[in-house]
Write a structure and sequence with these properties.
mainly alpha, Cytochrome Bc1 Complex, Chain D, domain 2, 36% helix
Length: 129
Amino acid sequence: MRHATVLGALLLLAAGTAHAADPVAGERAFAVCRSCHAIGPGAQNGIGPAQNGLVGRKAGTYPGYAYSAANRASGLTWDEATLRDYIRDPKGVVPGTKMMFAGLKDDRRIADLIAFLALFDAQGNRAAP
């Protein structure tokens, strides 16, 4: 039920635009993340941590992943606003992060990506969009 509530909030969030976040488009946006991150049933840590249960999780806490000291010590929780800022500029939000991604700059793609990520619980189960 928590994911339905989060998804509903994301649909209203729309990253400050009139666009309702679209998790289907977010899945396409996640394509740039797949070289380092996995999500869904059986997702494993890779170059980056698995993304299951990301929305609402404390930064630097996914089991079995060797996070940077900067990420572990950031004190962040991956809520929608924090994720939006981080996806836009990872090194600006967490200086010293190991994440090499330069960031997405398009608010619509960011909102869509967060809506997609919010579909997955900590076990990788996917809620219906």
